[in-house]
Design goal:
The complex is a heterodimer of chains A (113) and B (115). With 113 residues, chain A is mainly β. Chain B is globular and about 35 Å long. Classes of the chains: A mainly beta (113), B mainly beta (115).
Chain lengths: 113, 115
């Protein structure tokens, strides 16, 4: 019940296109859903996060869509750029207490110029 | 300002040896976390510190793993009698407070290879 399932494992998108990564969770007690971006040799960096009381959050070219009834959330990257090429992780945790993030398995995104 | 600093960046050790991994969190951050990133298991929570106390050690995989934090700052993760399955990238993260939505700032990790 602690799993977060992420898909696809890898994704290739043309420059200027929309990249979409999907995640599904099981534990309904989760109430914090961040996305992290990781470049090779670096630690994950927080990109954007959402609470389940909103269905969408947008920051620049990055948007999280959240479907509480389906227990799914997704990351959309608009106008994808080669610099967006990285591994993306979705995660989930409970706001109450320590931030014990449960991570998805990651998506390796490649943006072709 | 300076981010989370981890040392060493790479560590190669022989099976059975002990290793110590160090984390310097962002100044003023009260919460500190250790995570492990491996090919087979992905990113896993290991331990959480609030100040110098560790109220949640539930992710430590065995009693060969221990961690401490001193002065509300530097933390050391110790692995005794290392095994090949301990090979992974060990990531430290800190946040301003321990609340579950306080942004985590990760270091670049220590890549541990056990031969």
């Amino acid at each position: 019940q602690q799993q977060v399932k992420q898909s696809p494992q890898s994704l290739i998108v043309q420059k200027g296109g929309i990249s979409i990564i999907n995640c599904a969770y099981e534990n309904t007690a989760f109430d914090y859903f961040p996305w992290y971006q990781q470049f090779p040799g670096k630690g994950p960096a927080l990109l954007i996060a959402i609470r389940p009381d909103v269905s969408e959050k947008k920051e620049g070219r990055f948007t999280i869509s959240f479907n509480k009834s389906a227990k799914q959330f997704s990351l959309h990257i608009m106008d994808s750029q080669p610099g967006d090429s990285a591994t993306y992780f979705c995660a989930a945790s409970k706001i109450q207490g320590a931030q014990k993030l449960v991570f998805g398995q990651g998506t390796r995104l490649t943006i072709n110029p | 300002g300076a981010g989370v600093s981890q040392s060493p960046s790479n560590k190669v050790t022989e099976k059975g040896k002990d290793v110590e991994l160090r984390c310097d969190p962002i100044s003023g951050h009260t919460a500190l976390y250790w995570y492990r990133q491996s090919l087979g298991q992905g990113l896993e929570f290991l331990i959480y510190f609030q100040g110098n106390s560790a109220p949640d050690k539930s992710g430590l995989p065995s009693d060969r793993f221990s961690a401490e934090r001193t002065g509300g700052s530097v933390s050391t993760l110790t692995i005794q009698r290392t095994q090949q399955e301990d090979s992974a990238v060990y990531l430290c993260a800190s946040s301003l407070v321990g609340a579950g939505n306080s942004p985590l700032h990760f270091g670049n990790g220590t890549r541990l290879t056990v031969t």
